[in-house]
Specification:
Elements: H1 4-12, H2 18-30, E1 39-40, H3 43-46, E2 63-68, E3 74-79, E4 85-91, E5 98-100, H4 105-115, H5 136-143, H6 146-155, H7 162-177, H8 181-191, H9 195-207, H10 217-222, H11 227-235, H12 243-253, H13 265-278, H14 283-295, H15 299-308, H16 334-341, H17 354-360, H18 367-384, H19 388-400, H20 409-424, H21 427-443
Antiparallel strand pairs: 1-2, 2-3, 3-4, 4-5
Helix pairs in contact: 4-8, 6-7, 7-8, 8-9, 9-13, 13-14, 14-15, 15-16, 18-19, 19-20, 20-21
Length: about 450
């Protein structure tokens, strides 16, 4: 009888590691996962010609849904050029936002369990109330079960001794039992597990948790300030709030001057810079690291950071979570908006950046339309020139930089992705894009 992993690998032309083989053949059918993400996609469902689990045009076109929460959110595996599952992302159905949650199911499962102990304050990655479906006691009980602990130790021991991993899980259970969400995050970070998601959570602890007392529509109403963009814009960096407005907010929140909430921008900047050193495709890291440099008068460094992250997908920016969206409305991205304010610090090369000029320039059409047309032309030109790798990335950006205005536009995009991936020799990506296309045609 053909194994589940073999069926999936043949269906999508994947190259599965031993850990992924174990997941599809054994663990996915035997384990009861501890957090809210417990709807495990079956290989039979994924191997359908047009799997109903795929949200075409919304999910990234190089991804497959693997574990969901029955409310539409999914942990998806992203497939690289070689056909391996290179990382997992948490994909939020509410707006198509996504964030990396590790390179293995074990990492994503641990992060999901820890996430159940975050503050009750609304969290915009998983903001829907239904996503908190379990008691923390139930999460702890499942996390501490011999089956889960044994599987985690086996999956996470490639670079660490099993005893070290087991000890770390002991520490996680101990901290979570004491409602120490921050301590649990720090343990995950020390091990490098789900490191990007953990860094994002730590940034929230630095910047958003401290201001919860003033971050409400009721406070904005009391001082007669429109919630968006005016009041939200103030919440991004509360040190920048004018003294008169600060007193009004303090009075409305019934707090004294010495109780004014303090964001930790120094630590936030350091954390964001570690993420930017690893990758430039996460808009939230670029925004926080760049602004940290701006507020410490390191303008040239800020320009460099914003420029490197300029083409990060808007679906990766977590701008609502960090109250950065008030600054990104007009120009599509926080990085572009800030570069527009730092023109005097631009190097000569930046004046020749056509994409930046597009975001900052005057236009007669919507920004979405202009950017979509830009990436469409880039994709067509590069495919015509035979540069199929570049064309693939341009087709990807056409669909998932700012998005497109009509769902039917994704038909041409997905066709282009499949065609260029095939020409580039990326068989798995070609098959996955073709599968997303079938799903789109089924739904439209």
């Amino acid at each position: 009888m053909t194994s589940h992993s073999t069926l999936l690998a043949e269906r999508y032309e994947l190259h599965l590691t031993q850990n992924w083989t174990v997941w599809f053949d054994q663990a996915s059918q035997q384990l009861r996962l501890p957090g809210m993400m417990r709807q495990i996609a079956s290989v039979a469902d994924l191997c359908q010609p047009a799997p109903e689990l795929i949200w075409p045009g919304f999910m990234l076109p190089d991804s497959l849904p693997l574990i969901g929460n029955r409310y539409g959110d999914w942990i998806c595996g992203r497939i690289d050029e070689a056909g391996t599952i290179r990382e997992l992302i948490y994909w939020f159905h509410g707006g198509g936002d996504w964030i990396p949650v590790g390179t293995s199911v074990a990492e994503s499962v641990l992060h999901d369990a820890v996430d159940q102990f975050r503050s009750e304050r609304e969290q915009m990655l998983r903001g829907a109330t239904e996503s908190r479906i379990d008691s923390q006691a139930g999460v702890l009980l499942r996390l501490d079960s011999p089956e889960i602990r044994g599987w985690l130790a086996e999956q996470l021991s490639s670079s660490e001794e099993t005893k070290v991993v087991a000890s770390t899980i002991d520490g996680l259970v101990n901290r979570l039992s004491q409602w120490d969400h921050l301590g649990a995050l720090q343990l995950l970070r020390q091990q490098g597990w789900a490191q990007d998601a953990v860094c994002c959570d730590l940034l929230e602890a630095c910047l958003q948790t401290p201001i919860a007392i003033i971050a409400s529509k009721e406070i904005a109403k009391r001082i007669n300030a429109p919630w968006f963009p005016e009041y939200v814009g103030l919440l991004f960096d509360t040190d920048q709030i004018d003294g008169t407005i600060r007193r009004k907010i303090a009075d409305a929140a019934e707090i004294t001057d010495d109780a004014w909430p303090q964001q930790d921008w120094k630590l936030a900047g350091e954390i964001a810079e570690t993420v930017c050193a690893r990758r430039q495709d996460l808009g939230w890291a670029t925004a926080i690291a760049g602004w940290h440099c701006e507020r410490t008068q390191q303008f040239e460094q800020a320009v460099e950071i914003y420029t490197r992250g300029l083409q990060a997908s808007s679906f990766s920016d977590q701008s609502v979570r960090f109250n950065a969206h008030a600054d990104s409305e007009e120009h599509g991205k926080f990085s572009a908006a800030r570069l527009g304010c730092l023109r005097e610090k631009w190097p000569a090369s930046l004046h020749e950046n056509n994409y930046l000029q597009l975001l900052l320039g005057e236009r007669t059409q919507s920004l979405l339309a202009v950017v979509s047309q830009y990436w469409k032309k880039q994709a067509q030109d590069r495919e015509s020139a035979g540069d199929f790798a570049a064309a693939y990335h341009a087709f990807w950006a056409w669909g998932w930089d700012l998005g497109v205005s009509r769902l039917t536009d994704y038909e041409d995009i997905l066709r282009g992705l499949s065609r260029c991936a095939s020409q580039a020799g990326w068989a798995a990506r070609a098959v996955i894009a073709e599968t997303h296309l079938r799903c789109l045609q089924r739904s439209t």
